[in-house]
Amino acid sequence: MKIVLFEFRKNILRKTIIIPMVILLIVNVMVIYAQYRFQNDPFSSEVNRYHSSAREWEYYKELHAQFDGEITEEKQDKIIKLYDNLKEKIDNADYQKGYTKSAGTGYIFGDYSLIETNFYQPIKNLVSYAEKNKKLVDQAKENIKFYKKADNRYELKKNQHIVKKYQDRVIYDFYDTTGFQKLLDYNFSDVILMIFLFLCALPLFYQERIYGMEDMILATKKGRKTYVAGKYISVIAVIIMCTVVIACVNYIVFYITYGLKGSQMPIYALEEFQYSPYNLTLLQAYFAIQGLKCMALIVVSTLMCLISNMTKNTMMLFIIFIGVTVFGLYCSGYICSDNVQKVVIAIASPFSLFKGFNIFKSLYELDLFGNFELRINVCIVIQVIFEMLLICISYYKYKHSNSRKESFR
């Protein structure tokens, strides 16, 4: 434990790491705020205090105060009546085109557009979700009967999984989920994590070697036992801490800007995730995605530590790091592909675990020798095996290096 703390202080608590990380965290906060403050999409239906007029923003908050929470019959009747009255006026062109004092936004068409896009359609979709989902489950049940007779194990397991995971889904609440949609898809902080990994892993063994300290440390019995392990553990621990800190910072900043209401709503309440096989709340889904990223970074950090231990050439290490990152990210882009060969390549890349937002959207499966498996589960197992393999290689190299030094003495 002492050697881990020592390596942590020596390799991590340095100005060359702390100052860049503080700057990058500030930049991260500014990027989130800029995303909220400056909307570049002119067709976006997003409403906030900056993109909308003061009156529209107040009316928007007033409507959410009325309709947020449990979707009751009273609320359904109220929004339908409000929407139908406005739609009738729009269809018959029976409304004042200019400023209207009685309108919530100041304009009749503005009221219609705001209510249809942000309240009527979302509430309608949430209410009708159970019925649409039931049709999906009923079809899966019919498929189970068919594939049992056909003796198709893969399709049988797939449809059984659909029935198990999608059955009895109902959405009871309505909230403004814009914040969670943005939060789940936010990935600029991934760049920060990669830069931090680079700063930690690149010089891990460099200082001891350049000053000739490595041989002195390995000459002692205690040093031989703890030197490499201490470095590995310290980097992995810091990566985990950094991932947790950035995940919490992102959540807090998004909470301050967007509000992040409806954290206990199921992930399939979001339109993009209506076919998600995961029965997680929005809050659980966010931290699950961060957990996958953390696992990916642990594997990559172990790989980088091993490479750092194997080469004394810092430039070569830099080139390898960039090459591994670029190639891994390229392969991960196929994780949701329909091409089986590309999917196999993708699940071998630890960077595929960065694609949690995409993977959680729908049922992405893999035919594994006739067995039905979720791609993300296969990817996780492969990365665990890869991590264990890297640890074994590191241990072997360490033992081999020690035996050589002992025979030399």
What proportion strand? under 5%
User: What gross morphology would you assign?
Assistant: flat
Helices and strands, in N-to-C order? HHHEHHHEHHHHHHHHHEEH
Strand order of the biggest β-sheet: 1-2
The assigned structural class equals mainly alpha
Largest sheet: 2 strands, antiparallel
Number of strands: 4
Radius of gyration: 27 Å
Compute the average pLDDT. 84
In short:
With 409 residues, the chain is mostly helical.
Could you please describe the fold and organization of this structure?
- Helix content is about 70%, strand content about 5%.
- With about 400 residues, it is mainly α.
- Helix 1 (about 1-10) packs across helix 11.
- It is flat.
Please render the helix and strand layout as text.
Elements: H1 2-12, H2 15-37, H3 54-67, E1 69-70, H4 73-91, H5 108-150, H6 153-166, E2 173-174, H7 178-185, H8 188-201, H9 206-210, H10 213-218, H11 221-257, H12 282-310, H13 314-332, H14 340-347, H15 356-359, E3 365-368, E4 371-374, H16 375-408
Antiparallel strand pairs: 1-2, 3-4
Helix pairs in contact: 1-11, 2-8, 2-11, 3-5, 4-5, 5-6, 7-11, 8-11, 8-12, 11-12, 12-16, 13-14
Salient structural properties:
16 helices; 409 residues; disordered C terminus; two-stranded antiparallel sheet; mainly alpha
